[in-house]
Amino acid sequence: MPPRPSDAPGAVLLVCDYSLRYLGGAQTAFVRQAQALAEEGVPVVVLAPDADEPTAEGVVTIAPPRRGTIPVLDLPLLGRARDLEPLITATVRRHDVGAIVVHSEFALAAAALAVGKRLGIPVLHTVHTFFWRAPAVLAPFAPLVSRVHAALTGIRDGGRCTGSHPLDNALRTMTLRVAQRADIVLSPSRHQAEALRRAGAGRVEAFSNVAQPLQATPPSTDGPLRLLWVARFAPEKRVEVALDAMRAVVARLGEGRVHLDVAGGTHRPVPGVAFHGSVPGDRVAELMDAADAALITSLGFDNQPMVALEAFAHGRPVIVSDPVLGGEFGEAALLTPTPDAEGLAELVLSLEADRSLLDAPRAGALAYARDRVAAAHVARLRELIASARA
């Protein structure tokens, strides 16, 4: 198959090693990109485990055979990259693929990178996290992780990350070495893009995930100040910061003045907090409409949390504990004075006393989302693909 001429765009092949049955942040971004491309009339093919899950009308879905699941990571085991290359080659030829966008760092992504290079098709690698953070107690498993990744992907050389404990370094090295083989590395945030460039990833472009269509509703002017926390229940997301802050706020104001909804997790007795357990996307949207702002309490971990884009599309700002995210989101975010529960409580108390402090961030949220809806996203992606062909 000869290299594709630069004026023949063809279909876009989206590749992900993660199961689409579970919509975490990376999977949500992946599915929304597929939907955005289809909405804008771009032929799109999705290749991912459990790709038979609904994506969008007009999206061709292909699910590679699974051979099991990698424990702990809950990662579908698809075999080695070299064994997956024939499937990708056949997909490229059958669907007239002109560009490949990978959203992961394992065997399927590595196979797509190899096929793209061999056939002269540009491959873009979206990095959803370069800030892997594993418990330090698991550091002795770093050599095993490196060996397994090399065996699955066939990638054994490239840059090496240092600066954290061995397992974090191994995971970040894994991402870096895949990124170094792409024509363009896409980072949904500016701060992660800078980190990838410093690590030696090559050409890195800050390129946001897709924001949902704007669906802003006016916030309620009656009742308590309402906040929403939505994320994986993992240590790096720091839900306890939100809960401790609510304890401090209720101790100061009493119950009924501030309310926090938590999507996910199990119920526990925390004053002013309602735990909703695992909820579908439409229920998250309802909770967002009822909220005045969303909380993001992570610190030094997040790239571009999808909950932020969802909040912005609903016209809701985010309250962030991380100064890096505060800089990333600009006027759409309110930064706590300190990254701990005390800082969050202090900001919440000030918002409860004067809700007009939310007016400018609310406008900033809508502006941020407006620049990242499907049409804008797809137009920029087309520009990047064209530049990779040049």
Automatic annotation (TrEMBL):
Pfam families: Glyco_trans_1_4 (PF13692), Glyco_transf_4 (PF13439). This is D-inositol 3-phosphate glycosyltransferase. It comes from the Bacteria. It comes from Microbacterium soli. The keyword Transferase applies. Residues 24-205 form the Glycosyltransferase subfamily 4-like N-terminal domain. PANTHER family: SULFOQUINOVOSYL TRANSFERASE SQD2. InterPro entries: Glyco_trans_4-like_N, Glycosyltransferase_grp1. Keywords: Glycosyltransferase, Transferase.
